[in-house]
C-alpha cells in the first residue's frame, strides 16, 4: 500500500512539474513581450509615478470595486453565462478607405475600431493603438473581433511618422500588428517601460521614445505629442504595473486633439484640459465598463463629464465597436453616450469604422448606425 501511494505521489508531482514547465515555456513566447530591466529600469525608478517596484495612479485606484475576487471575476467573464447581447448578431457596418490615397496635407482622423485610430495632423501620419488581429488576446479565440470590423492590415497603412501606444494590454498593443508595421514606422512614442516590448520585438531603439506623464516629444512639422496621465493599469502577464499607461495630447499650430487611452474618470481630465486644451476633438474610453472595475474604465456619464472637463469642441466615443470585454450589450455605450451628451456644448461625432473625419470648419453629420442591429 505504501508503495502504491508513493507511486501515486510521484505521478502527481510529475504532472504538476510538467504543467508548471509548460506554463513557463508558454510565457516565454514573444507575444508576452519583456519586462523593463537594466538602464530602462533605472530610469523608471526615478519617475515620481513609480514607487515600491510599480507604477501608481495619481489617485487611489483599486482594480476591483466589489468583493468578488479577481480570479472569479475573470472566470465569470470567460466562462459564465452571457446575458443580453455582448456581441452583435451580424456584421458591423463599416467603410474601408484607402489610407494611402488620402492627402497628407489634410488634418483628419479615421477610427479603425475599438481604440485604434489613424490620424493626419500638421502633415504627419500617426497611428494610435493599432490592433489589426482578429483576436486581441494571447490565447486564440479568447477575445474575437466583431464580424465586419477587421478591415485593415499593416499592408494597408502608409508610412507612419509616429506610432503611439497608450499601454501594453493586448487590445492596445498587438504583437502581430506592431511587428508587421516595424519597417513602416519612423518613431514610436510610449509610456515608460513599454519600450522593453519593442526591444524584444526587434525595433531599432533609436526609434523608440519612452516618456513619463507630462513629458513631450516633438515631431517634424511643429507637432508636439504630450504624454498625459490616465487612470488604469498595465501588464501582459501576472507582473502588473511594470510599465506606464497614458493618454496623448497632440498639439499643432492649427489644432489640438486628445486620446485618453484606457482610463477611469478622475481629476486628471480637468488638469489636461487646463494644460493642453481647449481641444478641437477628443476620443475617450467610453465602453467596457462594469461595476466590478468601475475605477479603470468610464461609463457614459463619466465620459460626458470628462469631455466637458477637457473643454472640447467635438467628442468621439472609443474602446467600443470591435471587441467585447465587459458583459454589457455591445451597443449600450453608443446609446447611452448619445443620451448623456444631450445639452453639452460639445458635438458628438460617431463615424463608421474606416470613415475619414476631416478637421475643418464644415458641418458634420453622423448617423446612429448602431440602431437596428442586435
Automatic annotation (TrEMBL):
Gene Ontology molecular functions: N-acylphosphatidylethanolamine-specific phospholipase D activity; zinc ion binding
Pfam families xref list: Lactamase_B_2
Stretches that traverse the bilayer: none
Domain called Metallo-beta-lactamase: residue spans: 124-320
CC per GO annotation: cytoplasm
Matches recorded under PANTHER family: N-ACYL-PHOSPHATIDYLETHANOLAMINE-HYDROLYZING PHOSPHOLIPASE D (PTHR15032)
Name of the protein in question: Metallo-beta-lactamase domain-containing protein
Source organism of the structure: Paracidovorax wautersii
Amino acid at each position: 500500500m505504501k508503495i502504491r501511494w508513493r507511486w501515486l505521489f510521484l505521478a502527481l508531482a510529475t504532472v504538476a512539474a510538467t504543467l508548471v514547465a509548460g506554463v513557463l515555456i508558454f510565457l516565454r513566447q514573444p507575444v508576452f513581450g519583456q519586462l523593463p530591466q537594466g538602464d530602462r529600469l533605472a530610469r523608471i525608478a526615478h519617475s515620481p509615478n513609480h514607487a515600491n517596484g510599480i507604477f501608481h495612479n495619481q489617485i487611489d485606484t483599486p482594480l476591483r470595486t466589489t468583493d468578488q475576487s479577481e480570479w472569479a471575476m475573470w472566470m465569470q467573464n470567460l466562462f459564465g453565462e452571457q446575458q443580453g447581447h455582448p456581441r452583435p448578431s451580424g456584421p458591423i457596418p463599416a467603410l474601408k478607405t484607402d489610407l494611402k490615397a488620402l492627402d497628407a496635407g489634410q488634418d483628419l482622423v479615421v477610427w479603425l475600431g475599438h481604440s485604434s485610430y489613424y490620424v493626419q495632423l500638421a502633415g504627419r501620419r500617426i497611428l494610435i493603438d493599432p490592433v489589426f488581429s482578429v483576436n486581441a488576446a494571447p490565447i486564440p479565440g479568447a477575445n474575437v473581433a466583431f464580424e465586419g470590423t477587421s478591415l485593415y492590415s499593416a499592408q494597408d497603412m502608409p508610412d507612419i511618422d509616429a506610432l503611439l501606444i497608450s499601454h501594453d494590454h493586448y487590445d492596445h498593443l498587438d504583437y502581430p500588428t506592431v511587428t508587421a508595421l516595424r519597417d513602416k514606422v519612423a518613431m514610436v512614442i510610449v509610456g515608460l517601460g513599454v519600450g522593453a516590448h519593442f526591444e524584444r520585438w526587434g525595433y531599432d531603439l533609436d526609434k523608440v521614445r519612452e516618456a513619463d506623464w507630462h513629458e513631450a516629444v516633438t515631431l517634424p512639422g511643429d507637432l508636439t505629442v504630450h504624454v498625459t496621465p490616465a487612470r488604469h493599469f498595465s501588464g501582459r502577464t501576472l507582473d502588473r504595473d511594470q510599465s506606464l499607461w497614458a493618454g496623448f495630447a497632440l498639439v499643432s499650430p492649427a489644432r489640438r486633439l486628445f486620446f485618453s487611452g484606457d482610463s477611469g474618470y478622475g481629476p486628471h481630465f480637468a488638469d489636461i484640459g487646463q494644460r493642453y486644451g481647449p481641444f478641437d476633438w477628443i476620443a475617450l474610453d467610453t465602453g467596457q465598463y462594469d461595476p466590478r472595475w468601475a475605477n479603470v474604465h468610464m461609463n457614459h456619464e463619466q465620459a460626458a463629464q470628462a469631455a466637458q472637463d477637457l473643454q472640447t469642441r467635438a467628442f468621439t466615443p472609443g474602446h467600443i465597436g470591435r471587441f467585447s470585454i465587459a458583459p454589457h450589450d455591445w451597443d449600450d455605450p453608443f446609446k447611452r453616450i448619445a443620451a448623456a451628451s444631450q445639452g453639452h456644448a460639445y458635438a458628438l461625432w460617431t463615424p463608421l469604422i474606416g470613415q475619414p473625419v476631416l478637421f475643418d470648419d464644415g458641418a458634420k453629420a453622423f448617423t446612429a448606425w448602431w440602431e437596428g442591429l442586435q
